Amino acid sequence: MENPYAAPKQLEYDPGAVKWWQFLWSTVVALVAAGALALVLHLLFRKGLYFVIWVPAIAAMVLSAMLFWSVQVGHCRSRWMAAVIAVLAANVMYWGQYYFDMVERRGGAIAYRLDLLPGHIAWRKSIEIHEGGNPARFGARNAPKATPGLNWFNSALELSTVLLFTIAAAVASASRPYCTHCREWMRRDAQLLPEGAWQPLLEAIEGDSLDDLLGLPEVSPFTHRRFTAVTVAWCPPRRGRAAKCPAYLSIKEVRYGGGLGQLNQVDLSYGRTRLRMHPLTKRQIAALRPCFLNMSYSAVGCDALPPERREA
Questions:
Q1: Inside any domain, residue 102
Q2: Distance CA 258, CA 264 (A)
């Protein structure tokens, strides 16, 4: 997987490391949360409140938030490692509901017998009944006949949905700009411009005339799915001291994205990165500040490096 915010090789950035101790305990917390959600799914099924697709999808959103937090706390910049943890947590949550059902039916004495779980899952799929938009439930003598084929199809669809949410959240979290000098995640602000604006922007950067950016209209992320996302990342001041790390500009041509928050507008959006982590000069920071009101006044400028182009 390619990190769209990977820094140029000339810069002292390491996109593949973690703070191991923090990463391990935050991962354990995320896995415990996955187990707790599995128990919730099991209880909802027993109470007749388990709606196929919808209930696992909502649980996946909660787990995705935990994984996003876990990656941030663990300072994990490896997208592959974040994806592996997401897959593990997703499987713990989804198949864990069947584990709790097995323990409830057969007693706590077989809690350690994970080898019995596949057989129990197969048995469950042979008796589950799904009727239209009603919650899934167990079959009864006078109930319609269970359809194992449909049950397995629903499970595959549910698991795919859970994996989609969790992997996307974890990978997006690991992709955010990180400064190894400060050993902290960088702060970031974004501005959405009309589709195709990346070309004049690159020319403006090469000509050191970013003042022209003020004349470009912004677009709404709620009404536009195709746009140019311009982000500025910088290190916040620490303990009252101004950061010494330079600020960086990135440009992404989004072909499908939008919605609430930078996660949907930039990280999870589909498109192509046109400029990645370009260090800004003091003059460029001054020109960009009216456009990025959240940018800290502690953002530091430096001598610019040649921007990296990405042609279509």
A1: yes
A2: 6
